[in-house]
Design brief:
binds adenosine-5'-triphosphate; single chain; alpha/beta; elongated; nucleotide-binding; transmembrane helix
Length: 649
């Protein structure tokens, strides 16, 4: 008989002694049962012998024992003792864990959360991090210029031309640091998540004081804000309807956007006032949300202004692309619900989602192609682009108007967000979309005025100059606070145009001209847009330094030649780009350029009118056919003036 069997039998003997049963009988029964197999298999275990071959009859003898009263009490004792031991073990484990935990604070940071980025940036500011010996190299900036240690820190030229590289914690490795005299460990883990690899940071801080962790988080947030203070983050939604940071841009100064006097200030003040009025809204039970509708001519600065305002208000921009393939009502709803509390949500070309789900340009192209094909058909000619002309318009967006309306002010719509929507087709928007509560402030952007042209010129050749509006404001403030007028010297110090100014401090007050590296021949052909690329190579060169008076004079001449509300600010800027360092030529050649622009514009308008006429005629011929491209969402042609009281600037 092998050892395990002996142990079992002796155990049974002990148990039965206590219960007074005949143990010998039981044992002999078991021995009989095992004898047949153990005879020819030395060392067979109890299990194999009991359940092999012809034994079932003998094994049955065990059952009366197992269920007999005396044996049962033995089993109960075993269970009780076992249970007691296990409970003690668990209690001890729990106690030990709690005892140990009371000396630590732990926190987990998920990669999707911005706090993960705070920690990564904070880590990079730690002197100990510079000495680490095992790292992962990454080109991800985690929303700030510096996460972990930048390898390119001393090699700026290289870093400008290529993507920067960073040291980040290796997954599963634990790093130890000190924070305010406390021991801190950081471990980064990577797991396969539902949509790809999920990264987490696990932090353990040896302290019993929860405030220390809060302090660390505050420090981390501060480090992050300092790191990105002149930057703003752009977020878009991915195919899973989650927000992803896609870019980090330098903030654009509000002064670089030239609008008619008062417009910028009105929007800025309104937005600032809104952000500071949470309590006011709560007290009155008004949803704490604000919507701005920027409409008007293309290239008039709508998008630029939004980005600039967001930068000024230190808010990130969340772009909601209504025409994104795969986005439907529920996706839009969840996107809007997931917006952070303080942010700028941007819906560009809000009309496009309900017409074709395509960009305006593509719309017009397709319209033209379709009409071209149709006209060819009408005239009996074989259309060259018949296939293209008959190309079905892909309707990528599945967002309905009611879905958008619900998402904008439904129960789940995020509080504290500022919504900016832009459109070039104001009149085609549904009044419900534009009503106060959804779009509270409507701002029209027109083609360039003479005032804008003049300010743009000044800005272009002296980016550091303050605009007329800013200057006036500043003067007003100064006069108010000091009660004195600006002296002559101050005036002079602004004499330098600053255009391509060097670091030489003397230059800031000088009013001399530095020789332009590239002089125009005086009679330059108007460069076509294609030439712009070639001109770029000169942008690092120095242009003339203009005195304030020269700049004013040129700007005035420039503005005189720009017809009121005929060309866009974007095209004016494009024109100036071809004269980056030749302001005089820009003024001289403007007349010719304007002529061409106006001719092209008239031509476009004429074509548009013709198209419109053809459409009308077709409609008359086929009255029952719904006009192509009209959306299912059914945007109303009713003009907004019928809506409640939107504030229109
Ligand atoms: N008012 C302006 N002041 C300064 N720059 C302007 C202004 N308007 C347009 N620009 C310049 O023109 C370019 C295009 O401007 P932006 O994209 O903001 O126009 P938009 O009105 O949003 O056009 P769209 O309606 O086609 O989207 C930008 O590079 C911007 O610098």
């Amino acid at each position: 008989m092998d050892l395990p069997l002996q142990q079992v039998l002796s155990g049974i003997l002990k148990m039965t002694d206590a219960s007074g049963l005949n143990a010998t009988e039981i044992i002999s029964g078991i021995l009989n049962a095992t004898s047949s197999s153990s005879n020819h298999t030395e060392g067979t275990t109890l299990n194999t012998s009991l359940f092999s071959g012809s034994m079932p009859a003998n094994i049955l003898a065990l059952f009366p024992l197992l269920f007999s009263f005396g044996a049962l009490s033995g089993w109960v004792k075993i269970f009780l003792i076992g249970g007691l031991v296990e409970t003690c073990r668990r209690w001890f484990g729990l106690f030990y864990e709690n005892a140990v935990d009371s000396f630590y604070m732990t926190a987990v940071f998920d990669e999707d959360d911005v706090s993960y980025q705070w920690m990564m940036v904070w880590l990079s500011t730690q002197p100990a991090w510079a000495k680490i010996r095992q790292v992962q190299v990454s080109t991800d900036t985690y929303g700030a210029d510096r996460t972990a240690i930048s390898i390119d820190a001393d090699d700026d030229e290289d870093a400008v031309n290529t993507r920067k590289m960073f040291y980040i914690p290796t997954p599963s490795k634990t790093y130890t640091l000190w924070y305010k005299g406390r021991f801190l460990t950081i471990t980064r883990s990577e797991e396969q998540g539902r949509w790809g690899r999920d990264s987490k940071l696990h932090l353990t801080l040896t302290t019993r004081d929860p405030k220390l962790l809060a302090e660390l988080l505050k420090d981390a947030r501060r480090a992050y804000m300092v790191c990105r203070e002149d930057k703003m983050c752009i977020w878009t939604s991915d195919s899973t309807n989650s927000w992803r940071q896609v870019a980090r841009r330098a903030k654009r100064s509000l002064g670089s956007i030239v609008l008619d006097p008062g417009v910028k200030d009105t929007i800025m003040e309104d937005a600032r006032d809104f952000l500071a009025s949470r309590k006011w809204y709560n007290e009155r039970g008004i949803p704490f949300r604000r919507g701005y509708l920027l409409y008007g001519a293309p290239g008039s600065g709508k998008t630029s202004l939004i980005h600039s305002l967001a930068g000024e208000l230190e808010l990130d921009v969340y772009i909601i692309s209504l025409s994104r393939i795969g986005l439907d009502d529920s996706g839009l709803d969840s996107l809007i619900n997931e917006l952070p509390e303080r942010c700028v949500a941007l819906m560009e070309d809000i009309d496009a989602a309900f017409t074709h789900g395509l960009t305006r340009e593509l719309d017009e192209d397709l319209d033209e192609k379709r009409l071209g094909a149709k006209d060819d058909e009408d005239s009996g000619d074989e259309p060259n682009n018949k296939k293209k002309g008959q190309m079905p318009v892909p309707n990528a967006s599945r967002v309905s108007l009611s879905g958008l309306l619900n998402a904008l002010d439904g129960i789940g719509a995020q509080e504290g967000r500022i919504l900016f929507a832009t459109t070039n087709k104001y009149s085609s928007l549904d009044p419900a979309l534009c009503r106060p509560g959804r779009m509270d402030l409507h701002i029209e952007f027109k083609l360039a005025s003479k005032y804008q042209a003049r300010e743009l010129f000044k800005r272009f050749y002296n980016p550091n100059a303050r605009g007329e509006e800013e200057q006036e404001q500043e003067n007003r403030k100064e006069n108010e606070s000091m009660g004195c007028e600006k002296n002559e010297e101050d005036e002079k110090s602004e004499g330098d145009s600053g255009y391509n100014s060097t670091n030489d401090s003397s230059s800031s007050s000088s009013s001399t001209l530095s020789l332009p590296s590239l002089r125009s021949s005086g009679n330059v052909d108007l460069p076509k847009p294609a030439v712009c690329g070639a001109m770029h190579q000169h942008c690092h060169m120095h242009g003339p330094k203009l005195t304030k008076r020269q700049l004013e004079r040129m700007a005035e001449e420039f503005a005189d030649a720009v017809p009121e509300r005929e060309v866009s600010m974007a095209s004016l800027q494009g024109y100036l780009m071809t004269y980056k360092i030749r302001p005089e030529d820009a003024v001289k050649n403007l007349g010719g350029w304007i002529e061409i622009e106006l001719r092209e514009k008239r031509e476009k308008e004429r074509r548009k009118e013709e198209r419109q006429k053809r459409r009308e005629e077709r409609r008359k011929r086929e009255p029952n056919k719904r006009e192509e491209g009209q959306s299912e969402g059914g945007l109303s042609d009713t003009h907004l003036r019928n809506t409640e009281n939107p504030r229109i600037l």
